[in-house]
Amino acid sequence: MDGLGALKQAGCKLIYIDGSFCTAKEVPGDFDVCWDDTPVDLEKLHSLAPLLFEFEQGRAAQKARYLGEFFPCSFVAAPPATLYLDFFQLDKNTGGAKGIIGLQL
Question: Who is most buried in 5, 13, 20, 22, counting CB within 10 A?
Fold first, then answer.
């Protein structure tokens, strides 16, 4: 099962997309998904797609299986308190604000 299908089946209603997929690159290298975890049945999601909970080795297992990475919105991306949803909205080169793409599942 693909990552988005598993998220939808587990109750996720909203995702945000970032990564080189959302740039002007002619051939994007990957995508990053930040998913709204508030309505999600985490036990069900873990049974459907356990790799969405694997963050070791730079999320190598996620990248190998899905060709991208998935992050729960409410998890801390940059200690002490920057959540992934906020982190996705920061330009990594300038530190300034940037837009992301939101999609309803």
Answer: 22
Please give the Cα distance from 88 to 60 (Å, whole number). 19
- Round to whole Å and give the CA distance between 79 and 7: 26
- Phi and psi of 39, rounded to 5°? -95, 5
Give per-residue pLDDT as tens, 34-44: 999 998 999 99
Residue 12 has phi, psi (to 5 degrees) of -70, 135
DSSP character at residue 69? E
Element (H, E) at 65: helix 56-66
Please say whether the beta carbons of 10 and 40 come within 8 A. Answer: yes
CB 90 within 8 A of CB 75: no
CB 4 within 8 A of CB 11: no
pTM, 2 dp:
0.84
Q: For residue range 69-91, what is the model confidence (pLDDT) as tens digits?
A: 999 999 998 788 889 999 988 88
